[in-house]
Amino acid sequence: MAAVIAGLGGWLPPKIVTNDELCESLDSSDKWIRTRTGIQERRVVTAGLSTRDIAVEAGARALKSAGESTTDAVVVATTSADRLCPAVAPEVAHLLGLDTVAAFDITSACSGFLYGLATSAGLIAAGAAESVLFIGAEAFTTLVNPEDRNTRPIFGDGGGAVLLRAGRPGQLGSVGPIDLGSDGAKADLLAIPAGGSRQRAASGGLGFDAVPTEDWYLHMSGRALYTQAVERMTQSSRTALARAGWRVDDVDWFVGHQANARIVAAVAEELDLPAERVAVNIDKVGNTLAASIPLLLTDYAARGALRPGDRVLLAAFGAGLSWGATTMVWPKLAVDAFR
Predict the structure, then answer these.
(1) Which CATH number characterizes residue 60's domain?
(2) Average pLDDT over the chain, rounded to an integer
């Protein structure tokens, strides 16, 4: 039994924030941001929009792409859920008209799509579901310090989703061998300190003000993360290729998590992949964490750059630290553009 991608969809909030607009309230410049990240603009949520809404929009498009109105399970990968409790997936399922199906969240940050893909494929392989709607959705700009010039320009909001069906190994769209890994010893390189059970909003009679304001936002050690991202994504990609029996020359498209244009380019260089086989859209969307890879797939498939039969290598790296990679031969899908 294999999990096969039968539908694909993505959605971005309508509000666009350019680098110039961002720098009106931030000590930075368009040139500084573009040079270091490759990002020119990003989408951001506005009042009344949340991760739940993004997930519903992306999920509906994936169902439409697959020609389906129902599924057996909904899995949402997100690091910016609407609330600490409960999970957002049951609400998403309800709003999609999928009441009573199994629904749960996973939190693996920027590696969420690879971890969620493995989880969803496992539900199918175990016979727990014939089909799974898997969504990566983020409103992560709400968790970034608006005064931090090192993190605020990087992130954008959005969602991407796939509808997975039970199928045969080797079938077009079937998910190949998946490599996953983590290194919790380096968890503090990318973390939001406050809000969990370790540093709560109120503990021992102390109120909200006892927690430093900056601890409610993302902390990032950029240089150390760059080295880790390139090393781990390269290693994981090589492992996934070996398990699939592929050579680097077999890869038509490298679809890497859009964290930073320089990271993606460095991984491609380590793998000896030419630039024309590297998919990139970070310039228009920024780092959308778990939504990054499905949004990139939606983008390239909708405009015909990603064609049936293309061999695709997927890889991601994120907080945890966590990483993963897999392969697939692209299927024929009806995909609408998300812009």
Answers:
(1) 3.40.47.10
(2) 94
Catalytic, 219? Answer no
Instruction: Return the DSSP state at 153.
Output: T
Residue pLDDT, tens place only, 163-210: 999 999 989 999 999 999 999 999 999 998 888 877 776 555 555 557
Query: In the annotation, is 287 catalytic?
Result: yes
- The pTM of the full predicted model, rounded to 2 decimals, is 0.94
Contact of 298 with 312, CB cutoff 8 Å = no
Task: Examine residue 256 and state whether it is found in any structural domain, yes or no.
Answer: yes
CB 190 within 8 A of CB 225: yes
> What is the number of structural domains in the chain?
2
What count of residues does the chain have? Answer: 339
Out of 110, 145, 219, 281, pick the active-site residue: 110
- The per-residue pLDDT for range 312-322, each reduced to its tens digit, is 999 999 999 99
260 carries an active-site annotation: no
Residue among 19, 94, 145, 257 flagged as catalytic: 257
